[in-house]
Design goal:
This protein has helices at residues 2-14, 16-37, 51-62, 86-100, 135-143, 145-150, 170-186, 189-213, 222-251, 256-283, 291-322, 335-340, 343-354, 356-371, 392-404, 426-438, 471-485, 500-534, 538-563, 583-613, 616-643, 651-683, 692-695; strands spanning 69-76, 107-108, 112-113, 119-126, 154-158, 379-380, 412-417, 443-446, 450-451, 457-464, 494-498, 579-580. The chain is α+β, with helices and mostly antiparallel strands. The longest helix has 35 residues, at 500-534.
C-alpha cells in the first residue's frame, strides 16, 4: 500500500499542473451538470414496511384527496378581543380568501375557533406532497400573513410549508477557527491554508454533485448539511495528516520531492484506511432501510471519498508548488519551539505510560459517569415544541396547544379499509367507527368518518389528550393498533393508524430494531479492516471498546441537555423533549469512522516505530510524540466544525452538532490521546500479537512504509 501511494504522491508532485487542472475541470463539469440538471431538495419521509407507511400508500392509491399536504394558518386575536368580533372576523376571512387564491392551493377549510374565540385556525390544502410544492408557492402562502397582521391579528403557520428559513454561518465559523488552529500547529500561514483549500474544493465537488443528482433522488435538506459538515472535517484532517508528515520530513533534511512521496506513502496509507472506516460506517446506514437515512449516508460517504482522493493527489501537487517554503516555519507562530521538539506531547505520554492503571481507571470513570443519563434515553422526532420561540412553527404550536389542548398538535389519522360495506350501510358504518374510537382511553376528540368517492376507504382524525411526543400518545397508538388486529378476517375490514405522530413512533421503533444489526455490521467490518491494517487482534478490540465508551458518553450528555433540559438556555434549546430518533444510529456511523481516523493515525505511528526498532514501550512514547500534536489539532478542528452547528436554529442539526462535538472531545482527547497510550503501555509487545494461523491469511499492507527505502 505504502509503495503505491508513494508513487502516486511523487507522480502528483511531478505533474502538479496537470493534477490541479484535472480537479478544477471536475469542479467546473460537476457545477455545469448541477446547473443543467439540478432539482429541488425535499423532506419526503418514508419508512418502508411500517403500518403508517402502508396506510399512507393506501391513501395515495384510493383516497388521493386525503394524501396531499396542508399548511395550517393559525390566528390569535389581540388581547381583550376575540376572533368573533366583526373587524377581526373580517380580517381573518380576508386572509383566508387570499390563501385560497395562492399558487397551487386546491382549497381552504372553514375556520375553527377555540371555545373562548381567541384562537382559530384553517387548513390550506395542496393536492401534492409538501416536497413537490414550489418555493414560489410557499413564499406566496407566507405573504398572506400581512393581511391579518395589518388588522392587528397574530398570524402563524404550521405544517412546514410556510416556515421561514434561518441562515447561519456554521461553515464559515468552522473554517476561520480551523485556519488559526492550523497556523499554530504548522507554524506557517502557507501550510495552514492548504488543508482548507483542499477541503473546500472537495466539499464543493460533493455538494454540486448532490445538486446534480437531486432531480433523480429524494435529497432531504439535512443530507447536504451532514455531507458538508463531515466533508469539511475529514477533508481538513486528512490533508493535515499528510502535511504534518511532509513538514517533519523537510525538517529532517529530506528533499521536497522525496518528502512529498514519503508523506503520501506513510501518512497517506493511514488516510486511506481511516477514510475506508468512515465510508463503511456511512454506507452501513443502508441496513436500516429508511430511504432518507440511506441517501444521507451515501451523500456523506461520497463526500468523504472525494476528500481522500483530493488529499492523495491535489495536496501533493500543491506541496510541489510550495517547494522548500514550507521548511521555513514562522517564528511568530511558534516555529522555533516546534523545531526543537513537541514537549507537551512528550510530557503527557510520559505521564500516562508511567501510571497506566490509574489513568485507565480515572478515564473509565469519567466516561461511564457521562454515559449514565443515556440509560433513560427516549427517542422520537421533534415536534413544534422543540423549535425556537422565534419560529412561526413554535408560535403556532403554542397557540394551538393553548386554544385546543396539547393533543391537537399530534392528531392521529385512522384509515379504515372496508371494501364490502353496502352503500345503504355506509353512513351507519362511519358513525360506528367514530363512536368506537371515541371510547378509547386517552382520546380527546374524534372527527366524523370521511369516506372516499367509492365509499370503501374511510379516514377518521383522532385527537389524543396528550402531546405528540409523550409516552401516553405512543401507548394510545399501540392500543388502537392492537384493537385493529382483533378485527375478524372474514369481516374484510382492516384499520391502520398513520399521521405524523404515528410515523415518528414507527421510525423510532424501526431504528431501535435496526441498531444492534447496524452496530454488528459496522464494527465487525471495521474490526476486520483494522486487523489487516495493524496485524493485531488486541489493538482493534481496544479501538472498538474505546469507541463504544465514547458513544455512550456522547449520548449521555446529549440526553442530559436535550431530553432532561439541563443548560438548555446556554445551548438555546427551546424545550426539553425526546432525542431525535435517528441521532443514535447516525452518531454511531459518523463517530465510529472518525474515531478510527485518530486510532489509525496515532497507532500507525506506534506500529511504524515498533516495526523499525522492536521496542514496544519506546514505540508508544515515540509514536505518540510524533503524532499527538497533529491528532490534537485535527480533533480540535473537528470539534469546532461540528460545534459550530449549534448555531443552527434547527433542533435536529443542533442536537447532531452537539452530539458529534462532544463525541470527538471524549473519543479524541480522553480515549485516543489518553487511554490508548495507557492501554498500549500495559499490553507491551502483546499489543502486536497475531496468531500464526491467522497471520497466514492476513495480507501485509505495509502502511508503516518499511519497503519505501527500496522504492
Amino acid at each position: 500500500m505504502a509503495t503505491y501511494l508513494f508513487r502516486l504522491g511523487r507522480w502528483s508532485h511531478d505533474h502538479r499542473r496537470l493534477v490541479l487542472a484535472f480537479w478544477l475541470t471536475i469542479l467546473l463539469t460537476v457545477g455545469g451538470l448541477a446547473t443543467a440538471f439540478g432539482g429541488t431538495k425535499n423532506n419526503k419521509f418514508e419508512v418502508p414496511g411500517t403500518e403508517s407507511q402502508q396506510a399512507q400508500e393506501l391513501l395515495e392509491e384510493r383516497y388521493p384527496a386525503a394524501s396531499g399536504s396542508y399548511a395550517r394558518v393559525v390566528f390569535a386575536a389581540p388581547e381583550g378581543q376575540t376572533l368573533k368580533d366583526s373587524s377581526n372576523a373580517a380580517a381573518m376571512n380576508a386572509t383566508l380568501r387570499e390563501a385560497k387564491g395562492a399558487a397551487e392551493v386546491s382549497g381552504v377549510s372553514e375556520p375553527v375557533l377555540s371555545k373562548d374565540g381567541t384562537i382559530g385556525y384553517a387548513d390550506v390544502i395542496y393536492p401534492t406532497p409538501s416536497s413537490e410544492i414550489s418555493e414560489e408557492a410557499k413564499q406566496e402562502l407566507a405573504d398572506i400573513s400581512a393581511t391579518g397582521e395589518a388588522a392587528g391579528l397574530q398570524v402563524e403557520f404550521s405544517g412546514g410549508i410556510a416556515a421561514e428559513e434561518a441562515a447561519h454561518g456554521s461553515e464559515s465559523l468552522g473554517m476561520i477557527v480551523a485556519f488559526f488552529v492550523l497556523a499554530i500547529t504548522m507554524a506557517s500561514l502557507l501550510a495552514a491554508g492548504m488543508p482548507l483549500i483542499t477541503a473546500a474544493l472537495g466539499v464543493m465537488i460533493g455538494m454540486t454533485g448532490l445538486t446534480a443528482l437531486s432531480s433523480v433522488i429524494d435529497l432531504s435538506e439535512t443530507a447536504p448539511v451532514l455531507a458538508t459538515m463531515l466533508g469539511l472535517a475529514v477533508g481538513i484532517d486528512y490533508a493535515l495528516f499528510i502535511l504534518a508528515r511532509h513538514k517533519q520530513n523537510l525538517g529532517e533534511g529530506m528533499e521536497p520531492r522525496e518528502s512529498v512521496a514519503h508523506a503520501s506513502g506513510t501518512a497517506g496509507s493511514a488516510v486511506v484506511f481511516a477514510g475506508l472506516t468512515v465510508i463503511i460506517a456511512l454506507v452501513g446506514l443502508l441496513v436500516v432501510n429508511i430511504p432518507f437515512l440511506s441517501v444521507m449516508g451515501l451523500a456523506a460517504a461520497g463526500t468523504v471519498a472525494i476528500a481522500v482522493l483530493v488529499a492523495l493527489t491535489l495536496l501533493p501537487a500543491m506541496l510541489g508548488f510550495a517547494g522548500t517554503r514550507l521548511a521555513k516555519p514562522n517564528r511568530f507562530l511558534g516555529g522555533r519551539r516546534i523545531r526543537k521538539s513537541a514537549p507537551l506531547s512528550a510530557r503527557w505520554v510520559a505521564f500516562v505510560t508511567r501510571r497506566p492503571k490509574a489513568v485507565l481507571l480515572v478515564g473509565l470513570a469519567l466516561l461511564i459517569g457521562a454515559a449514565v443519563p443515556a440509560t433513560h434515553m427516549e427517542l422520537g422526532l421533534p415536534d413544534g415544541s422543540s423549535e425556537p420561540t422565534s419560529s412561526t412553527e413554535r408560535r403556532s404550536y403554542d397557540l394551538l396547544t393553548e386554544g385546543f389542548g396539547p393533543g391537537f398538535n399530534g392528531t392521529l389519522t385512522v384509515v379504515v379499509d372496508a371494501p364490502e360495506v353496502a352503500r345503504d350501510q355506509q353512513e351507519a358504518f362511519g358513525k360506528e367507527v367514530a363512536e368506537t374510537l371515541q371510547d378509547f382511553p386517552g382520546v380527546a376528540a374524534v372527527s366524523p368518518a370521511m369516506p372516499n368517492e367509492q365509499g370503501d376507504l374511510w379516514i377518521v382524525q383522532v385527537t389524543p389528550e396528550t402531546g405528540p411526543a409523550t409516552e401516553e400518545t405512543k401507548n394510545l397508538v399501540t392500543a388502537l393498533r392492537d384493537e385493529a388486529d382483533k378485527l375478524p378476517k372474514d369481516a374484510h375490514v382492516s384499520a391502520y393508524v398513520t399521521g405524523q405522530t404515528a410515523v415518528n413512533i414507527d421510525t423510532a421503533d424501526r431504528l431501535n430494531q435496526a441498531l444492534p444489526m447496524y452496530i454488528a455490521v459496522v464494527v465487525g467490518l471495521a474490526l476486520l479492516l483494522l486487523t489487516v491494517v495493524f496485524r493485531s487482534i488486541l489493538v482493534p478490540l481496544k479501538a472498538a471498546a474505546g469507541f463504544l465508551l465514547s458513544i455512550a458518553a456522547s449520548l449521555g450528555v446529549t440526553v442530559w441537555i436535550f431530553q432532561d433540559g439541563n443548560l438548555n438556555g446556554l445551548f438555546d434549546v427551546a424545550a426539553a423533549g425526546p432525542i431525535v430518533s435517528f441521532l443514535p444510529i447516525l452518531l454511531i456511523g459518523i463517530l465510529f469512522g472518525l474515531a478510527m481516523d485518530y486510532e489509525v493515525f496515532l497507532v500507525s505511528r506506534m506500529r511504524e516505530r515498533f516495526t523499525h526498532d522492536g521496542d514496544a514501550q519506546g514505540a508508544v512514547v515515540k509514536g505518540y510524540t510524533d503524532s499527538g500534536r497533529v491528532v490534537t489539532a485535527a480533533a480540535t478542528i473537528m470539534m469546532v466544525v461540528f460545534g459550530a452547528y449549534l448555531l443552527s436554529p434547527d433542533p435536529i442539526i443542533k442536537s447532531i452538532g452537539l452530539a458529534l462535538a462532544f463525541g470527538i472531545l471524549a473519543d479524541a482527547f480522553l480515549v485516543r490521546l489518553t487511554l490508548v497510550p495507557a492501554a498500549m503501555a500495559l499490553l507491551g509487545r502483546h499489543a502486536w500479537w497475531l496468531p500464526k494461523r491467522v497471520s497466514r491469511y492476513v495480507p501485509n499492507l505495509d502502511i508503516e512504509g518499511a519497503r519505501l527505502a527500496t522504492t
